[in-house]
TrEMBL record:
Highest taxon above the source species: Eukaryota
Protein name as annotated: Nucleolar complex protein 2 homolog (Protein NOC2 homolog) (NOC2-like protein) (Novel INHAT repressor)
InterPro entries (alphabetical): Noc2
Keyword match Membrane: no
Organism (species): Durusdinium trenchii
Primary location: nucleus
Record Pfam families: Noc2
Amino acid composition bias (Basic and acidic residues), ranges on this chain: 15-28
Annotated keywords: Nucleus
């Protein structure tokens, strides 16, 4: 019993001590700025609820303040100036009351942005950022007002830079363990839990309403730090919301900031994703596999629209995904296995739906034959008259529509970029080496599934991905037969093609196509040039192998035949140049084999350093890199000119 009395006495003494300290903290604000102190009393009654024993004293103080409030102007007390904010922040490290006042000021500044956006949306000014009116000098939220733009900026900048330090100070965390400590295990976590959640809510609102890349950069510098993520991690709902916001910035940066700091917010958003991925390995909650799947879904959605201007952006995202997959081999393999399996299922469904479409055509033919056959029995004729042929036709049409959707899903930019992405991941990550053969079969099946020349660009993308897979894994990937098939179809189509009108038309880039827009001679010639370039790329790699003479013997027969019958002079010159380079490389490889004293090391496909074909391949890749750069610059300049043009 005596122990309980002592505990209660200590608790009361401690509570009274905290209340006295709380009162002393407010007394300093009261002496310096009585009007602002009066407003705090009116708006937050909890500031005066020190202890239960001091309730009467608090009531007397409130009555005295209310009497004086009738004489003082209310507008002055409700104005948050820069001087008043400096008074609050100067005592924020010593006073928990001032610490809460800082977060209230931060909340006021953030919510003033969202309230202004709602007003602008009503007026219709949000349609064009260039015509947006300047912010008002006075910002209102409920009954509190920020007096100037300088105060608004000072509140945001100071809180973003120093609030995490205040959280660590008031929670009892040590500075050296701030990046690895679990805030929920700190002695005063319950005291700062709601304040911490309040800060992250407001910071997310600020990030969502940021109108410029500079504002996004300032917010993300705070959020992306590993020290900051330790304080975000206890709130699971906020984790998901921040992940979605950073994925949106990572995939869709603001176009207006392209000339200044467009890359910086994307880099900082990736830094958030990378540190969050590392945090999943240390803390419970979000798993690394779930985060990787979210990143891959965002990447697939971002590649739905593909052009020269987005090429660098797509490659940047591929580099980021590669870094995320390096964090944990086991999680990378599980996610890679599931994703490649999904690509295989998509290919399987497309193949089955195409067979169904062909079967639907046969059903329609049988129905027509049944209608025209009047020599059948009356029972069969009556069944046909009752509408069964029409039902079969409806079913066939529905299956045809589903087959068309499946084909569109396969022949799409997300699938193409997924092929290139996984070819790179499987090649660069040792943990994914075992997935090389399944990926090869999926890409090869997708290429073979489109047998028409109309889908030649899609097939060439798949063959390019396979060639990159062979270059990095040093595993033999035979592509010559597929390239010869495409070349044969292209040359036959050129013989029947017309030159087309002489009017000025946009340049056709096979790299940015999935289907041929037309079958004119100029377009088909570009397809032939692309096939020849891919042939040099593929044979240039194989020429470094000791088996090159045997691999190219049947290929040379077809190339010589095509070079004789090709009617396009430029294409015929390319074929003859390729044949001469192949023959020179064959002779060099044969001389190298005669000089060998030991067999090549196992698992190494490329043994020779350089051959005539490999040197031609290197020159070709350099020219293609310059061509890419010119196309990207031209399309970017064209886009900027369109933005500068006034709207009609």
């Amino acid at each position: 019993m005596a122990r309980k009395v002592r505990k209660v006495t200590k608790a009361k003494t401690k509570k009274q001590g905290e209340g006295q300290r709380h009162e002393d903290e407010l007394q300093a604000i009261k002496e310096k700025d009585p009007d602002f102190y009066r407003f705090l009393v009116e708006e937050d009654q909890q500031l005066l609820d020190f202890t239960a024993d001091m309730e009467a004293e608090s009531e007397d103080e409130k009555v005295e303040i209310d009497e004086k409030a009738e004489k003082a102007p209310k507008e002055k007390s409700r104005l948050l100036t820069l001087e008043r904010f400096e008074q609050i922040r100067s005592s924020a490290t010593k006073s928990f009351t001032a610490f809460k006042a800082v977060i209230n000021a931060y909340h006021l500044a953030v919510r003033s942005i969202s309230s202004e956006e709602r007003e602008d949306a009503v007026k219709g000014d949000v349609e064009d950022d260039a015509v947006r009116p300047k912010r008002s000098n006075r910002r209102r939220w409920q009954s509190m007002t920020i007096d100037s733009e300088a105060t608004f900026s000072a509140i945001l900048e100071w809180c973003l830079a120093n609030f995490l330090g205040l959280l660590e100070h008031h929670s009892g965390s040590k500075a050296e363990d701030s990046a690895t400590v679990d805030p929920t295990r700190l002695p005063r976590w319950n005291r700062v839990k709601m304040v911490s959640q309040f800060f992250w809510d407001e910071t997310l609102a600020l990030l969502s309403h940021a109108q410029t890349a500079e504002m996004q950069e300032a917010v993300l510098r705070t959020c992306s730090d590993a020290r900051a993520l330790a304080w975000l991690w206890p709130f699971k709902a906020l984790q998901r919301r921040y992940l979605r916001a950073c994925l949106h910035i990572w995939t869709q940066p603001k176009p207006s900031s392209a000339s200044t700091s467009s890359v910086s917010p994307r880099l900082l958003s990736f830094l958030f994703l990378r540190n969050a991925a590392a945090m999943t390995l240390l803390r419970d909650g979000l798993t690394l596999e779930a985060l990787l799947r979210s990143v891959l879904r965002a990447f697939m959605a971002a590649t739905a629209s593909y052009s020269w201007r987005s090429l660098n952006s797509v490659r940047f995202m591929e580099n980021c995904i590669l870094e995320l997959f390096r964090l944990d081999d086991a999680a990378a393999y599980r996610v890679g296995y599931v994703c490649i399996r999904q690509l295989a299922l998509l290919l399987r469904n497309t193949s089955l739906s195409s067979k169904t479409l062909n079967t639907g055509g046969k059903v329609k033919a049988k129905i027509a034959q049944g209608k025209s056959n009047k020599a059948k029995a009356s029972s069969k004729a009556s069944s046909l008259a009752n509408g069964k042929p029409q039902q079969h036709a409806k079913v066939a049409s529905k299956k045809g529509k589903s087959a068309a959707k499946q084909s569109e899903t396969l022949v799409s930019w997300p699938f193409v970029r997924a092929m290139f992405l996984w070819a790179r991941l499987v090649s660069d990550l040792k943990a994914l080496k075992d997935l090389a053969y399944p990926l090869y079969m999926v890409i090869l099946g997708a290429t073979k599934s489109q047998s028409s020349l109309h889908f030649a660009p899609f097939c060439l993308h798949g063959l390019t991905a396979l060639n990159e897979l062979m270059a990095k894994t040093q595993r033999l990937v035979p592509l010559s037969a597929l390239l010869l098939r495409l070349l044969d179809m292209d040359l036959k189509a050129i013989e029947k093609a017309s030159k087309g009108p002489d009017e000025a038309k946009e340049a056709v880039h096979i790299e940015m196509l999935l289907q041929l827009p037309n079958f004119e001679e100029e377009t088909l010639s570009k397809v032939g040039n692309y096939i020849c370039a891919l042939f040099i790329d593929h044979l240039g790699l194989l020429s470094r192998s000791v088996a090159f003479p045997e691999l190219t013997t049947p290929v040379l027969l077809h190339l010589r035949r095509h070079s004789k019958h090709c009617r396009v002079e430029a294409l015929r010159r390319q074929l003859k140049l390729m044949i001469s380079l192949v023959e020179e490389s064959r002779q060099q490889v044969q001389r190298f084999r005669e000089q060998l004293q030991e067999p090549p090391p196992p698992g190494q496909l490329f043994v020779l350093d350089a051959t005539p074909l490999s040197r031609q391949r290197a020159q070709l890749l350099n020219r293609y890199a310059e061509h890419e750069k010119r196309c990207i610059e031209a399309e970017t300049a064209q886009t900027r000119e369109k933005r500068k043009c006034p709207k009609p």
